Amino acid sequence: MGSARGFLLLAALILTAAPLAAQERPVVVDGTAGYTGLVDDATDHFLALGGAVRVYLTPHISVGPEFVYMFGDDAIRDRAAMLTGNVTIDVFPVNTRRVTPFVVAGGGMFWSRESFPSGPFWSSDPAFTAGGGVRVKVGERVSLAAEYRLGWELHHRLTGSVILK
Question: What CATH number should be reported for the domain holding residue 103?
Answer without folding.
Answer: 2.40.160.20
